[in-house]
Write a structure and sequence with these properties.
The complex is a heterodimer of chains A (233) and B (1019). Chain A is α/β, with parallel strands linked by helices and 233 residues long. Chain A has 6 helices and 10 strands; from the N terminus they run βββαββαβαααβαβββ. In chain A, β1 and β2 form a beta hairpin. The longest helix of chain A has 18 residues. Chain B has 4 domains: 189 residues, no CATH class; 213 residues, Helix Hairpins; 184 residues, no CATH class; 150 residues, no CATH class. Chain B is built from 23 helices and 20 strands. In chain B, α14 runs antiparallel to α22. The chains are: A alpha/beta (233), B alpha+beta (1019). Chains A and B meet through α2 and α3 of A and α13, α20 and α23 of B.
Chain lengths: 233, 1019
C-alpha cells in the first residue's frame, strides 16, 4: 500500500448561493521518501489538494490515507496533532513571524514537536549559520524562505509540503531553494510534495502529478529525475 | 464625490462590526459622561419642581409659647412675605410609636395623594404612604399636648407623600422613645388650641428661584431679615402679654383668696363670740351650782344638827319623863288612872275639908293630904302633858326628819340635774372650741398655702422666660439638605470619573481608525493614484466617523440622560421618599457635546489618515513593509532573559512590539482598576470612618439630654440611673457654637466635664501631635478637621460664637483625632474661666449594660419627664449604615462602569491584535498549535499587559481614591483615606475575571480564523 493515497477526493466551497468545485475526484498515490511535484496552472486546485493533504482543510468527499491513517476521519484536534507532528509547510510568502529571529521562528515550531531536530543545526544546514539571530525583515527573500524551510524540516515531519516555494523569488534564488529542498528530501528521506505552475521544476521530481480544472490530468513517474543544477532556467 | 459617499456607505456595510464598535464606544463614553454629569442637576430640578408643586414653605416659625393672631397679622404685613399660614402640629403616640399629626392645609405644604381619596369628614385622615395602609384605623393613645384634639380615632382614607418629609428618617419626636416614625394629616378644624403652634411662610417670588441655588437663598434671606427684625418685637409683645395675663391672674387669685379669708375669719370670729358667751354662761352655771351645792351641804349639816339636837332634847325629855316615872314608880299606862283616882281623892278630900273647919284638927292633916294630893295631881297632869308633848315632839321630829331628808334628796337631785346640764354644756362648748380651733388652724394653713401659692406664682412670673421664636427654613426638614449633599457627592465623583472614559474612548477610536486606514491602505493608494485629493479621501473616512459619532453621541446622550440619573435616583429611594425623576435633555449641552465629540473624532480621523496620506500614492499603493522585529531592552539582561521560557520570550517581545497598544491596554486597565479600587475604597473609608468614630473614638452608648440643667445629679435621676442598666455615667455640658472658617460658619459642639479621668470611659482622645494624650488642665482640646479648617496648631487661639453671637476666645492645648462633626473639649475649670459662670450640666454621657433595650429605656425616661431625649450611638451607627448601603449602590454603578470599560478596552484591543496578526496566528495554526496554545500565544501578552495595567491601576487607584475622598469630603467630615487589603484583591479579581471573559471571546474568535484564507496572499 502506498504511503499516501488520495481516493476520489472532492472539495466544494460554498460562496453564498454558488458552489465552487475546487477539486473533483482527485486520486493519486505517493510512496514514502518520494519527491513529488504537483503541477498545474493557477486556479487548477493544486493548493486545495495540498491543504487537504496537510490537514488544513476538510474534504467534501473521498478519502485521504496517510501512513495507513484516514486523516479525513480525524477530529479537529487530531488534525492539529497531525499538522503538528507529521506535516511541515513551506509557503510562497514564507509566513515567518516578524517579531521573531530566524532561530526563534524555528524554535516556535520545534517547541511543540515530539522529535524535532536542533534548530541551530537545521539553520546551519540550510546555510544560515551567521544569520540565526536576525529578524525576518533583516533577511533577503531567499534567506527568509530558508528559514521557512528550516522551520518546516526541523519539526522532523513525515511529509514536507511546499506551496510555490520559489514563487516570490528570483530564479537564481529559486534554484538554490529548490536545490535545498531536493537535497533535504534525498538526504533525510523525507516525503516531499512541491506545488508549482512551473513545469520546469517538475523535472526534478520522482513523480509529477498534473492537475487541471480540479482533477488529476496525468501522473508521470520519472525514473531518473534531474538534479536542480541540471535544470535549464 | 458621490462615489466616495457610496464608498463610505459600503465601508460601513463591509465593516459593520467596526462601525458599531466606534458607535458603541462613543455612545458609552458620552453616555457615562453626560449621564453622570446630568444626574445631580436632574435630581435637583426634580426636587425643585416637587417643592414648587407642593408649595413647600420657605420658613416655619414656632414659638416657645405658641403664636397669636397678632403675630400672624404682623407677619402678613412684612414686605417680602407671600403666604402666611397658621397651622398646628402635635406629636402623638399610635400603637406605642411616635407620629406627628399635622393640620391639613390647602395653600401650603400640600401633600401628594398617592392612593385613596381626600378627607371628607373630620374623623378621617391622610397618612404617610410609606408607613400606613389604606383603611387603617389610627387610635391616638397620647398627645404631646393633651386636650388639643377631641377626636382621637381616625380612618386612613388617603395615602400621601409630603415634601416636608423627604428622608425616610423622620427626625425627633417629643413623645414616646423620641424617634418620629411617621405622620398624618387631619382636618385643620380638629385642633382646639388657644395658640397656633406654627406658622408657615413663603417668600415672594421664591418659587421662581431654584431651590439649593444661591439665588433662592438670597431671595429668602430678605424675608429672613425682615422676620428677624420682627421677631424681638413680637417676642417682647408676647412676653408682656403673658406677663400681664399672669399678673392679673395672680391678682385675681389673691383677691378671691382675700375675700374667702375675710369671710372665714368673720365666721370664726362670730363662732368665737358665741363660744365666749357660752363659756360665760357655763361659768355662771358652775358657780351657781357650786353655791347651791355648798348651801345644800350647809343645810344638810345644820338640819342634821338641829335634828340631832331635837332628838337629843326629846331623848332628854323622855329620860326626864322616864326618870320622873321611875321616881314615882309610876307605870306609864296607869298614869291616867292614877290621875283620875287622885282627882277623885282630891274631890273627896275637898269635900271633906269643906266640911271641916279650919280648926278642926283633922283639917290641917286633911288639908295637908289634900295638898299632897294636889301636888300629885299636878304631877300626874304634868306627866301626861309631858308625855303628850313628848309624843308630839317625837312626831314632829319624825316629820321634820322626813322633811329634811326629802329636802336634801330633792336638792341633791336638782343639783345633779344642774351638773349634768352643765357637763353637757361643757362638752358642746369643748366641741365648739375644738371646732373653732380647727377652723383657725385651717384658716392659718389655707392662708399659708394660698400665700405660698401666690408667692410661687409671683416667683414663677419673675421666672417666665421671654417667649422665643424659632425660625426654621427648609434646611430643617429632614432630608432637604442631605439629599443635596448626596447629589453634590455624585457630582464631584461625576467630575472625575468620566475623564477616564473620555480619554480611553478617544484612544480606542484612534486605535480603531488607524487600524482601519492601515487595512484600507491599498484602496487609499488606488484612490490617490487615480488623482483623488487627500481631502476627498479623508472625507470618506470623516463621513464614516461622523455618522458613527453622531449616532453614538445621540444614543449615548439619550441613554445616559435617561438611565444614569434614574439609576442614581433609584439609589436615593432607599433613603428618601421622592417624586419620579424628571429627565431633562438640555439642548445646548447636547449640541455642545455633539460638537466637541465631532471635533475630537475629526482630529482622530485626521491624524489616522494623515499618517498614510502624507506619503505619495506610489508608496501607499504598495503593501506596507512588515513591521520590523526588534529586540527588547530586557534581552540585554541576559541573566533574566535566559531564564525565560521560549513562549515567555515571545510574549515579552510581542508585548513591546506595539507601543501604542501597550499604552492603551495599560491605561485602559489601569483606569478601570483605579475606578474599581476607588469604588471599593470609598466604601472601606466610610466603614473605617464609622469604625473609628463610633468604635474607638466615641464609645459611649447613649447621651441623655436632660430636661433641666443641673450642678448635682438629683436623687430622682440617680435612682433612675441605678435601675436603668446604666453601667457608668458622667455629667457633661454640651452646647452648639459656631466658628468661621473661610467665610463659612461651621457648627461646633463645646463639651465640658469635671472628671477628665472618667471621660476616658466614654471618649478616647488620640492626640495628633504624636504625644501621649493627657487632658490639659488649661486651654481646650479641638478636633482635627476644625484645626485644619482654621489652620491652627497647639497654642493658637480659636474664636467661637454662641447663639447670642457672643464671641469667645479659646486657647488650643491639643488637637485630637475625630472624623465627623467638630468638637471642643474642656474641663470644668476652663469652662468656668472662659464663660465666667458656674458650670451647669445638661447631659449625661452613659454606657449601658449589654443587651439593654434602648427603646424601653428611652420610653421609661421620657415618661419620667427627666429627659428631652436620648441619643443612642447605635442610632448614629444606623444612619451611617444606611449611608453605606446607598454608597454600595454607587459602588456597584462604578463597578459596572469600570467593568464595561475594562471589557471594551480588552475586547477592542484583542480584536485589533487578532486582525493585525491574523497571518501570524494562521502560521501558528499551520504549525500545529492547538486552539488553547494559539489563544495563549496571542492572549498571554494582553494578559501580561492587563496585569501591568492592574498593578498600575491599583497604584493609581490609591491616588484617585484619595482625590475623590478629598473632593467628596464635606466641611464637617474628615475622611479617613483607607482601603482594605481585600478591596485591592477584589478590584484585581474583577479585572482578571473580565480579562478571562475576554479571553474566552478571543478563544472562539481565534478558533474561527481560516488559516488558508489568511495565508493566501500578502497583505
Amino acid at each position: 500500500m502506498a504511503y499516501i493515497e488520495l481516493k476520489k477526493v472532492s472539495k466544494t466551497y460554498k460562496m453564498g448561493e454558488v458552489e465552487i468545485k475546487a477539486c473533483h475526484d482527485v486520486s493519486f498515490q505517493i510512496e514514502k521518501g518520494e519527491l513529488v511535484v504537483i503541477l498545474g496552472p493557477s486556479g487548477a486546485g493544486k493548493t486545495t489538494v495540498l491543504n487537504l493533504l496537510g490537514g488544513m482543510d476538510t474534504i467534501t468527499s473521498g478519502q485521504i490515507i496517510v501512513d495507513s491513517q484516514d486523516i479525513t476521519k480525524y477530529t479537529r484536534k487530531e488534525l492539529i496533532g497531525y499538522r503538528r507532528n507529521s506535516i511541515g509547510f513551506v509557503f510562497q510568502f514564507y509566513n515567518l513571524v516578524g517579531n521573531l529571529t530566524a532561530i526563534e521562528n524555528v524554535e516556535l515550531a520545534v517547541q511543540i514537536c515530539k522529535n524535532p531536530f536542533s534548530p541551530k543545526t537545521i539553520l546551519e544546514r540550510v546555510g544560515l549559520k551567521d544569520r540565526i539571530n536576525n529578524f525576518p525583515a533583516e533577511l533577503s527573500g531567499g534567506e527568509q524562505q530558508r528559514v521557512a524551510i528550516a522551520r518546516a524540516i526541523a519539526k522532523n515531519p513525515k511529509i514536507l509540503l511546499c506551496d510555490e516555494p520559489t514563487g516570490a523569488l528570483d530564479s537564481k534564488t529559486g534554484v538554490k531553494i529548490l536545490s535545498l529542498l531536493q537535497q533535504t528530501a534525498r538526504e533525510m528521506g523525507m516525503t516531499t510534495i512541491i506545488i508549482t505552475h512551473n513545469s520546469l521544476i517538475a523535472e526534478i521530481a520522482d513523480k509529477v502529478i498534473k492537475i487541471k480544472n480540479g482533477t488529476v490530468d496525468d501522473v508521470i513517474i520519472q525514473k531518473d529525475p534531474k538534479r536542480v543544477e541540471e535544470l535549464d532556467w | 464625490m458621490k462615489l466616495l459617499f457610496r464608498l463610505s456607505l459600503r465601508k460601513i456595510k463591509k465593516s459593520l462590526g467596526r462601525f458599531l464598535s466606534i458607535l458603541l464606544i462613543v455612545a458609552l463614553g458620552v453616555g457615562f459622561f453626560a449621564g453622570l454629569r446630568e444626574s445631580a442637576p436632574d435630581i435637583l430640578t426634580t426636587l425643585d419642581t416637587y417643592y414648587d408643586n407642593t408649595n413647600l414653605m420657605d420658613f416655619k416659625i414656632t414659638s416657645t409659647t405658641g403664636l397669636t393672631t397678632d403675630d400672624i397679622e404682623s407677619l402678613k404685613e412684612l414686605e417680602h412675605v407671600d403666604l402666611v399660614v397658621p397651622s398646628y402640629s402635635l406629636d402623638a403616640l399610635v400603637s406605642g410609636e411616635a407620629i406627628r399629626v399635622h393640620a391639613l392645609l390647602d395653600s401650603i405644604n400640600q401633600v401628594t395623594l398617592k392612593e385613596g381619596r381626600e378627607i371628607a369628614s373630620n374623623d378621617e385622615c391622610l397618612a404617610d404612604a410609606s408607613y400606613f395602609n389604606l383603611g387603617d384605623t389610627i387610635h391616638i393613645e397620647k398627645l404631646s399636648i393633651e386636650g388639643v384634639l377631641e377626636i382621637v380615632d381616625y380612618k386612613v382614607v388617603g395615602l400621601v407623600d409630603s415634601s416636608l418629609y423627604l428622608s425616610r428618617e423622620k427626625g425627633i419626636a417629643t413623645i414616646g422613645n423620641g424617634k418620629l416614625e411617621s405622620f398624618i394629616f387631619i382636618p385643620y378644624e380638629n385642633f382646639n388650641s388657644e395658640v397656633i403652634t406654627e406658622v408657615y411662610l413663603t417668600s415672594k417670588n421664591s418659587k421662581e428661584e431654584s431651590s439649593y441655588e444661591t439665588s433662592y437663598e438670597e431671595n429668602i434671606q430678605v424675608l429672613e431679615d425682615e422676620i428677624l427684625e420682627l421677631k424681638p418685637i413680637q417676642e417682647t409683645k408676647r412676653y408682656e402679654e403673658i406677663l400681664e395675663t399672669a399678673t392679673k391672674e395672680i391678682q385675681k387669685i389673691e383677691d378671691e383668696f382675700q375675700v374667702e379669708k375675710n369671710k372665714a375669719t368673720s365666721e370664726l370670729q362670730s363662732a368665737k363670740r358665741e363660744l365666749d358667751s357660752a363659756r360665760a354662761e357655763l361659768d355662771t352655771g358652775w358657780s351657781e351650782y357650786n353655791a347651791s351645792l355648798k348651801l345644800l351641804e350647809e343645810n344638810e349639816t345644820s338640819g342634821k344638827e338641829k335634828l340631832e339636837n331635837a332628838k337629843k332634847e326629846l331623848e332628854n325629855g323622855k329620860t326626864a319623863y322616864q326618870n320622873t316615872l321611875n321616881q314615882y314608880q309610876i307605870v306609864e299606862e296607869n298614869l291616867s288612872s292614877l290621875l283620875e283616882s287622885t282627882k277623885n281623892q282630891i274631890a273627896n278630900l275637898e269635900a271633906v275639908l269643906n266640911n271641916l273647919e279650919e280648926t278642926d284638927p283633922n283639917y290641917s292633916t286633911i288639908k295637908q293630904n289634900l295638898e299632897s294630893l294636889k301636888q300629885l295631881e299636878t304631877l300626874y297632869t304634868t306627866l301626861i302633858t309631858t308625855k303628850e308633848t313628848l309624843q308630839k315632839s317625837e312626831e314632829t321630829l319624825i316629820q321634820e326628819e322626813e322633811n329634811y331628808n326629802e329636802q336634801i334628796v330633792n336638792g341633791k337631785k336638782a343639783l345633779e340635774e344642774a351638773k349634768q346640764e352643765l357637763d353637757e354644756g361643757e362638752v358642746s362648748y369643748q366641741n365648739g372650741l375644738r371646732e373653732y380651733e380647727n377652723g383657725v388652724l385651717e384658716l392659718e394653713n389655707a392662708t399659708r398655702e394660698a400665700e405660698e401659692k401666690i408667692e410661687e406664682a409671683r416667683q414663677a412670673l419673675k421666672e417666665i422666660e421671654k417667649p422665643e421664636w424659632y425660625l426654621l427654613n427648609r434646611t430643617n426638614n429632614n432630608g432637604y439638605t442631605s439629599i443635596y449633599d448626596d447629589a453634590m457627592k455624585i457630582d464631584s465623583i461625576a467630575k472625575v470619573f468620566p475623564v477616564f472614559f473620555i480619554l480611553v474612548v478617544a484612544l480606542m477610536c484612534f486605535n480603531t481608525l488607524t487600524r482601519m486606514v492601515e487595512e484600507e491602505r491599498g484602496e487609499i493608494g488606488i484612490l490617490a493614484s487615480l488623482g483623488y485629493s487627500k481631502f476627498l479621501i479623508m472625507g470618506s473616512y470623516i463621513f464614516y466617523v461622523f455618522l458613527a459619532t453622531i449616532l453614538g453621541v445621540t444614543i449615548g446622550l439619550l441613554g445616559g440622560y435617561t438611565i444614569i440619573p434614574n439609576v442614581v435616583y433609584q439609589i436615593y429611594h432607599a433613603n428618601y421618599i421622592l417624586p419620579s425623576l424628571e429627565v431633562s435633555i438640555k439642548i445646548i449641552p447636547f449640541l455642545l457635546i455633539i460638537f466637541v465629540s465631532l471635533f475630537i473624532m475629526y482630529m482622530i480621523t485626521f491624524l489616522s489618515c494623515q499618517k498614510e496620506l502624507k506619503n505619495n500614492p506610489a508608496i501607499i499603493i504598495r503593501p506596507k513593509a512588515p513591521r520590523k522585529g526588534k529586540k527588547v531592552l530586557l534581552e540585554r539582561v541576559k541573566f533574566f532573559w535566559q531564564r525565560l521560557s521560549f513562549t515567555s520570550k515571545v510574549t515579552v517581545r510581542n508585548m513591546f512590539r506595539y507601543k501604542k497598544r501597550i499604552i492603551m491596554t495599560v491605561l485602559g486597565i489601569a483606569g478601570s482598576t483605579a475606578l474599581l479600587l476607588t469604588g471599593f475604597g470609598l466604601r472601606d473609608s466610610i466603614n473605617r470612618l464609622i469604625e473609628l468614630q463610633y468604635g474607638s473614638i466615641i464609645h459611649y452608648d447613649a447621651l441623655f439630654v436632660m430636661q433641666d440643667s443641673f450642678q448635682e445629679i438629683s436623687s430622682e435621676v440617680k435612682e433612675n440611673l441605678n435601675t436603668s442598666n446604666v453601667s457608668s455615667y458622667l455629667p457633661i455640658y454640651q452646647e452648639s457654637f459656631t466658628f468661621d472658617a473661610n467665610n463659612i460658619s461651621h457648627d461646633v459642639y463645646v463639651m465640658a466635664f469635671e472628671d477628665v479621668e472618667k471621660i476616658n470611659e466614654f471618649l478616647t482622645f488620640n492626640s495628633k501631635s504624636n504625644q501621649e494624650f493627657s487632658f490639659p488642665t488649661d486651654g481646650v482640646v479641638i478636633t482635627e478637621k476644625m484645626a485644619k479648617l482654621l489652620n491652627v496648631g497647639i497654642g493658637d487661639f480659636v474664636k467661637i460664637r454662641n447663639s447670642q453671637n457672643e464671641l469667645y476666645m479659646l486657647r488650643v492645648s491639643d488637637i485630637v483625632e475625630n472624623y465627623t462633626l467638630h468638637y471642643i473639649y474642656m474641663n470644668k475649670a476652663t469652662y468656668e474661666k472662659v464663660f465666667e459662670q458656674e458650670i451647669s450640666y445638661n447631659m449625661l454621657m452613659a454606657n449601658l449594660e449589654e443587651g439593654t433595650n434602648e427603646e424601653e429605656l428611652s420610653t421609661k425616661w421620657l415618661e419620667e419627664g427627666l429627659i428631652s431625649t436620648i441619643n443612642f450611638t447605635s442610632d448614629n451607627l444606623n444612619t451611617f449604615s444606611v449611608m453605606v448601603d446607598s454608597l454600595n449602590k454607587i459602588v456597584y454603578l462604578i463597578i459596572v462602569a469600570s467593568c464595561l470599560l475594562a471589557f471594551i478596552v480588552l475586547y477592542n484591543l484583542t480584536t485589533i491584535n487578532i486582525t493585525e496578526r491574523v497571518r501570524e496566528i494562521s502560521t501558528l495554526k499551520v504549525l500545529g498549535f492547538y486552539d488553547m496554545e494559539v489563544s495563549n500565544y496571542v492572549y498571554r501578552e494582553t494578559f501580561m499587559l492587563t496585569l501591568f495595567g492592574l498593578l498600575l491601576g491599583l497604584l493609581l487607584g490609591v491616588s484617585l481614591h484619595s482625590y475623590v475622598m478629598t473632593v467628596a469630603e464635606t466641611d464637617n467630615i474628615l475622611f479617613f483615606h483607607y482601603i482594605n487589603w481585600y478591596s485591592y484583591i477584589f478590584a484585581g479579581l474583577v479585572i482578571m475575571i473580565f480579562g478571562l471573559i475576554v479571553q474566552v471571546f478571543t478563544h472562539f474568535k481565534l478558533k474561527r480564523i481560516d488559516m488558508i484564507e489568511s495565508l493566501k496572499s500578502v497583505e
